[in-house]
Amino acid sequence: MVRENAPLVHNITNYVAMNFSANVLLALGASPLMAHAEEELEEIVSISPVLALNIGTLSAPWVKSMHKALDAARRREKLVVLDPVGVGASKFRTQTALELLAAGGISVIRGNASEIRALAGADGRTKGVDSSESSDSAVAVAQRLSHTYNTVVCVTGATDYVVHAEGITALKNGHPWMTKVTAMGCAATSMVGAFLAVEADRALAAVSAIATITIAGEIAAAKSGGPGSFQVNFLDTLANLTETQIAERLKVEHWK
Amino acid sequence: MVRENAPLVHNITNYVAMNFSANVLLALGASPLMAHAEEELEEIVSISPVLALNIGTLSAPWVKSMHKALDAARRREKLVVLDPVGVGASKFRTQTALELLAAGGISVIRGNASEIRALAGADGRTKGVDSSESSDSAVAVAQRLSHTYNTVVCVTGATDYVVHAEGITALKNGHPWMTKVTAMGCAATSMVGAFLAVEADRALAAVSAIATITIAGEIAAAKSGGPGSFQVNFLDTLANLTETQIAERLKVEHWK
Amino acid sequence: MVRENAPLVHNITNYVAMNFSANVLLALGASPLMAHAEEELEEIVSISPVLALNIGTLSAPWVKSMHKALDAARRREKLVVLDPVGVGASKFRTQTALELLAAGGISVIRGNASEIRALAGADGRTKGVDSSESSDSAVAVAQRLSHTYNTVVCVTGATDYVVHAEGITALKNGHPWMTKVTAMGCAATSMVGAFLAVEADRALAAVSAIATITIAGEIAAAKSGGPGSFQVNFLDTLANLTETQIAERLKVEHWK
Fold it and tell me: Smallest Cα–Cα separation from A45: which of A19, A65, A18?
């Protein structure tokens, strides 16, 4: 559905992820747009069905832009996905993510276990921007977050969890090399944005995005000799991925 | 001629394009330099034959730097190429591009049809930073722009047009996958800069740059399985491209 | 040793290098972290054993952040590596690099011959950010720098020199294509950071990093058809590189 609609995905994201996230969105069939200037956020939000916020290389002016864009998105009833990169590693990150959440209007949060735990005030052992914890450890706090902020919460890791009002979906696709390419998580967040733009059920949009990226990852890994060729094959695979491939490989479980 | 001279190309460009544009310039045989600090622009402009300005991820401080660099370039009689990314998508972009043009000293503009139409005040239907229009639709307005600002105008798309005082050159090389790698247009702009540094005829420099990038694109596409391998093969092809390959494949038409 | 310890490497680096440096650190087995906000530097420095500073796309706010991070690193006795990109090309770059050095606490400097000569006040003929000089020409000034600032100095080029209090190590591995991928030098600096985090002897850490990146480069070049595939093969090779491969290929000389 992303390919047919080529939705515009407006990203205010980090410097490390910008290029790769744009290429992932293009490979998926979406149309990436990166814009952070306060002067143009109202207009850019107005033409984009979805906004992806990512605090990976945050600074005060960018945080201000994120709030301004979120405010415009909320007024215009646009969908918003938040990637709280490195939350728990500094008070500035934790506070920024919590203030964005408190402002309201975040449809989906995607983070690793440490980030989701830190967001929920649990004792996250964040080591920089990588998670040192299993995603399983964050499911209970993700449920709390989901309830508090009326949002879908994706906890990604060896198993990916999509936690929402009606229950929990666990996905077991993917490959360890996905953690060896920088910004893969950030790109997943942008992909959630692309699916949100074309699928009204937010939890289903998140599940579809996670399934697509992890299945592309495992197909690509089987053809690759390391993280360099993996990144290349990942983009090729994503561009050529079929519904049939996804259906055949999907390892998913739902519970209430 | 770029390979023999390895010209320094000074870029003030967007965050998404910086890495890829630098790699494209290196593959071409040029020497990329990215610098935007006001404190050093006078010196950086003085050592570079050409300046490439790109407003893709503009913000107020960067716009100020672009004006400062453009002013230095004009005083020092350096060549300047402008990429008005996303013009038409926001007033801030349109106004910035028009003010840079009005300041004078832009030798070449390169944009897609929507951007060129928006620059000329025509009814551009810009959808984010990608064009939803055929490049043919922008030729007439490009002629007007070229005349008004005494500049060469490149309208890129399925057919690429180089519009200049003496006429129009149409190039029909390239491959659709060029739109599936982010910053390919931005890299084309930087390549125009590299050719401007070694070729006194500005229109010929633009035609050479467009021919080089599109022919590298079609050769690379034939070896690739998707946008990931295409990007890799594009850089390899560009680094190995010969005059003979260009001569054999070039599909070009001139008219007055 | 990097793979076993997966050290966190905190980078305040340039926009061009961020993505590639992060991917190189991941391929090496380290854990990259990019953060530049003043608000969080004290905490980020406190959790990272090493800080890599790179002035490639410097601007006043980033310089301020670099000083703040360096100050925190010095107080906390963290290791710091400095990449003085483009020093000599502008007074702003030269002054920034010299002020960072004068502040104290830089363990290792890595630059090309022009940069090292410019840092030492010698007549550097910097052409943008690429060196137009042989690394041999900078060994004497590197010794002076090493003595003045009590730091290890790496001069990279066709031959790489690691200059330190006890002598000089010359390494003759690598491949010319390493200069055709942007940010390869910046990534080398981040790699020095990763080795500093796991090896107490600073000169040995620098030698190990340079040996690793240049040997990965020559193995990758042998499999590649140009700079695009070279970059991909470089990351694959780095991720799979063994101690045996390094031992077999290492061309090293030490003298006092």
Answer: A65
Q: Give per-residue pLDDT as tens, A118-164.
A: 999 876 455 555 566 788 889 999 999 999 999 999 999 999 999 99
Do the Cβ atoms of B18 and C16 come within 8 Å?
A: yes
Q: What is the pTM of this model?
A: 0.96
| Average of per-residue pLDDT values in chain B | 95
Q: What is the pLDDT of residue B136?
A: 81
CB distance A239–B14 less than 8 Å? no
Contact A35 B57 (CB under 8 A): yes
A173 phi/psi in degrees, rounded to 5 = -95, 180
Q: Which of C17, C90, C181 sits opposite B43 (nearest CB)?
A: C90
CB proximity B232 to A under 8 Å: yes
Query: How large is the average pLDDT for residues B11-22?
Result: 98
Q: What gap in Å lies between CA A78 and CA A44, rounded to an integer?
A: 12
Please classify residue B102 by burial: count the beta carbons closer than 10 Å to its beta carbon, then call 0-12 exposed, 13-18 middle and 19+ buried. exposed
For residues A215 and A205, is the Cβ–Cβ distance under 8 A?
no
**Residue-wise pLDDT tens digits, B133-192:** 788 889 999 999 999 999 999 999 999 999 999 999 999 999 999 999 999 999 999 999
User: Under an 8 A CB cutoff, do C19 and A20 touch?
Assistant: yes
**Distance from A165 to chain B by nearest Cα, in Å?**
33
ipTM, 2 decimals?
A: 0.95
The tokens describing A183, both together, are 């910004």
- Shortest Cα distance from B145 to chain C (angstroms)? 32
Which residues make Cβ contacts (< 8 Å) with residue A104, sequence separation at least 6?
A74, A149
Tell me, what's the pLDDT at C137? 84
**Distance (Å, whole) CA A97 – CA A81:** 12
* DSSP 3-state of C103: helix
Chain A residue numbers with beta carbons less than 8 Å from the beta carbon of B24 are none
